Hints:
The structure holds 2 protein chains of 2 kinds.
Chain A: E1 2-4, E2 11-13, E3 21-23, E4 29-33, E5 38-43, E6 58-62, E7 65-77, E8 82-90, E9 95-101, E10 104-111, E11 125-130, E12 133-154, E13 163-170, E14 175-182, E15 189-196, E16 204-205, E17 220-223, E18 230-233, E19 241-243, E20 249-252, E21 259-263, E22 277-280, E23 283-297, E24 300-311, E25 315-322, E26 325-332, E27 337-339, E28 344-346, E29 349-368, E30 377-385, E31 388-394, E32 399-407, H1 409-415, H2 440-465, E33 469-479, E34 502-503, H3 509-523, H4 529-542, E35 546-547, H5 548-566, H6 575-580, E36 599-601, E37 607-609, E38 613-615, E39 621-626, E40 633-643, E41 648-663, E42 666-672, E43 674-679, E44 685-695, E45 700-709, H7 714-743, H8 753-782
Parallel strand pairs in A: 33-36
Antiparallel strand pairs in A: 1-2, 3-4, 3-12, 4-5, 6-7, 6-16, 7-8, 7-12, 8-9, 9-10, 10-15, 11-12, 12-13, 13-14, 14-15, 17-18, 19-20, 19-29, 20-21, 22-23, 23-24, 23-29, 24-25, 25-26, 26-32, 27-28, 28-29, 29-30, 30-31, 31-32, 33-45, 34-35, 37-44, 38-44, 39-43, 39-45, 40-41, 40-44, 41-42
Chain B: H1 22-44, E1 52-55, H2 58-62, H3 66-69
Amino acid sequence: MRTTCPNCGAPIEFRYDDSFVRVCASCNHAVLRTDRSVESLGRVADLVPIESPLKLFAEGHHGSTSFLLVGMAQIRHEAGGLWQEWYAKLDGGQWGWLAEAQGRYYLTFEEPWLAAPNDVAVGQRIEIPFRGTTRSMTVGEVTSASYVGARGELPFRLVPNETFRYADLSDGQGTFATIDFGDEDTPPKLYVGQQVNVADLHLTGGEVEPPSPRDEIKSQRLACPSCNGPVDLRAPGESLRAVCAYCNTLLDTSSGSLAILGKLAHKAQPRIPLGTTGVFSDGKLTVIGYVQRSALVEGEWWAFDEYLLYAPGTGFRWLVESDGHWSYIQPIATGAVEVTVKDVSYDGVKFTHYQQSQLRVDQVFGEFYWQVQENEIVEGDDYIAPPAMISRETTKSEINDSLGTYMTVREVERAFADDPNAAKLQIGTPVGIAPNQPDAWSAASAVVSLAFMALIVLGLVFAMAARDEQKFNKTVSLGGGPGPSTTTAPLGATPPTPELGLADPGSIPECVEFKKVYEATVACDRIGTTTHDAYRQMYEVTYIASDRDTLAAGCKTSTDMMHQALDSACQLPTHEQLAAGSGSEAGSGSGSGSADAEVTTAPPDSVFFSDPIQIDGGRNIELKFEASGLSNDWVYIAADLVNETTGTVTTGEANMEYYSGVDDGDAWSEGTRESKTVFGPQPEGKYVLRLEAQHGSSGLMPIEVTLKQGVFRGRWLAWAMLVLAVPLFFVGLISYFHEKKRWENSNVGKAPITPVALMILAFVGVFIAIGFILKALAESSSGNDD
Amino acid sequence: MATTTEPRPPDRPAVPRAKRPVVATILIVFSTLVVGSYGALAYSQRELGEPDREEVPKSVRASPGGYRSYHFWHSGYHGGK
C-alpha cells in the first residue's frame, strides 16, 4: 500500500498487508495504518549508532526459510541499556523478532498463549507453550523498557517513548522467551524462539553489507565534556558508561555522545591497562573496563578486581583477579543453572555453595555496558566445582549467572603474551587457595583410592576363588637334637629292597660300625669345622647303596682312617665296644617318644617319606606344620618335594618355636606352634614329600603335616596394600589440608565429604594393611616362606 | 565412522574439567603397576623368589631307596633359645 506521511507528506509504502507501522524516512514519524487511513503515532528519536552485523533489508536464512529484515527499533532498558529489535518477514509470511543485545541474538516468534500470566517473578519456573508442547523455563528478568527509535516497517503498534513491561525467560538449552505484558487493554503476548549465532543466519545484502562479526574492535574517540581529554569507546553503541582517564568523570555514553554524570570518588589503577588484548577460550578479547568490587564477608569488605573484556561478535566476558588468583568468566543463560535446595547444577555438574555475600562497586575505570556507579550493591552467590565456579548475581529485577574458569598465572601471562605491553603486565602471585582452584592432590588421591579399592576387590576375588584343596594330611613323629641328625645320612623308613645287586649300607655290619664311629666324630668337639666337613664328605660318599663287598670294604677302610686320625683327639667307639653293644647309643639322635595310633612313627634318624602325592600343575602348594605338643622348644623342618618322574627336588623350610613361663607371677608365652611354607606351581606329577626335622630336645615330636594346593596368599595382598597405602596416606593428607584451607574462606559451607572420606579410607586402608602385614610377618617369623 | 559434535547453544559454555596433574599421572602408572603385579602374582600363584632345587641323579633314583640316602639333607642350627 502506498500512501503519504500524515506529518510531512512524504511518500511511504507498506509492503506487507499485515504490518502496522511504517516509520517515515523523512520525518521519523511512526505512521500507523488503520482500516480507513493512516495516522502518526509521534516522532521517534534518531537512531543511536550501534555497531551491528544486522542491516535493514538484509536477507538471511533461518533453517530452510529465508527472511528479510524490514524494520527495526531501538529499545531502552529501564536501567538505561539500549538494545535493538529487528523485524524479519519470513518467506511464509510469518513475522520473526530478532533481538540484538550485548553481542547476543535471539530469534523469536509470537506464540499464542491464552493462559498467559499478568505477572511473573524473577527466578520463577513457568511452563511455556512452544510448538505444540510445553517447555519449562526460568524467569531471568522482569523489567520495563520503552521504544526510542525505529526504522522501516513494523508488525505491531509502536508508540514512541511508550513504556511496556516484559519478562525474559530461558530454559538454559538455548530456548528463549519474552512475555510482553503490554498495557491494561491488551493481553500479554508471548514470543518464543532460540538464541542464535549471527553467523548461522547467513546475512547478505541490506543497506550496507554487514561486517564480519569477527572484525577487529573499532574504537571511537570522543572528547570528555568535563576536561576535553580524549575518551576512547571500544564498544561504541554497546557502552552505557565510560570514565574519563584524565579527570575521573563518569560519563553517560548511551546517546552516542558523552554526558557528564559526576566525578568519581576514587581513581582506579588497574594492573592490566585498558586496550590490552588477550586470547582466551572465546578468542581474542580486549580489556575495555575495570571495576574494583568488594565482597562483604562476616562484616568485612574484601576487594577483588574485575576486567571487562569485549570483542565484536563475541560480546562481553570478564577476567577476575582475587588474591592473585585469576578466573575467566563467561555468561550463562539463566535457565541453564538448576537450583537445588542448597547447591546448583549446570551442564550435568554439581556446584557446591561456597559463598554468599553482598558485592559492592568501589572503583570503576573504562567503559561498561550497564549503568555502573560507585557503591552499587548486588547479592552474590558463588558455587564451586573446581576449576569451575558458577556466580549468581541477583537484583530485584534480574538474575545473572556466569561461569568462571580458574586460570593459573602462567595461563594469564600466556593469554596476554601477544600484546605489545605483555612484558609490563603485573599478573602477581597467588596467595592462599582460591575457591575454584583445582586440587592436584585430590585427583591423585582419587587415583590411588580407586587403585586401593580395586586391589581389595581383586584380593576378595582371589580369596573366594582359592580352591584350598587338601592333598595330604598326616601326623608324623620327627625328632633328633641339633647334633648328629644334621649331618647324618637318612635311612629309609622301610628298608629298601635290594635290586641289581645293590645293598643297603644299614644291613652291612662294617657300615653300621662306620656310621657309629662317624657319629662319634660329629659329636667330638676337639676337632675343627674343616675336619668335620672332610669326614662328612667321606661319610657321604661311602655310606650309599652299592654292592655289598664294595660297601663292606669301603666302610671298613673309612672306619680305620677315622680311628687312625682321631683316636688321640676323640673318644671313638672301638670295634670291640660296638660289638659288645655299648656303642649303640652313640649319636643315635633318636628319641623315645611314643606315637599314638594315628601317628606314623618316623624312623629313628628323623626322616619321613610320604607315599606319592598327586600334585596338579599351575597351582601353588602350601605345607602347613603344626606341633601342638611344642613347649619351650624349637623345631626346624626341612621339607623336600621330590618329583618321582624327573627327580627334581624342591626344597623349603619351616621353623617353629614356642616358649612360655611365669615371671613374677605373670604367665607369658611367645612364638608359635604353627608354620607354613609355600611353593609356587610345580609340574604336574607324583611327588614324594620328604621331611627332616630337628628340635631342641630328645625324643620324637608329633607334627601334623598338611599339604594343600591353590591356597590364597594374603601376604602378597598385604604387601600390595601397604605399597599403595603409603602414597594414599600422603596425598590424602595433602588434599585434606588443601580443601580445609579452601573452605576456611567460605561463609556458607564446609569442606565436602569427599576429601575427608578419602582420608578415612586412607587411614582405614593403612590399618588394614598394617594388620595384614603383622599377620604375614608373624607367619613369616614362625615359618619359612619362599 | 565419522562423528559429529552437537554445537553448544549460545551462552551455554562447557564446564571446564580439571587437567590431570603430573602427580596423578605418575600415581596412575604406579597404581597400575602395583595392582597389576599383585593380580599377576595372585593369578599365577607364583611365589617371589625361586625355591632351592636340585636334581637327584637317575642312578641314585634307580637304586633301591636311592634318594633316601641322597645328600639333600639339610644342615645347621635352625632354632633354639
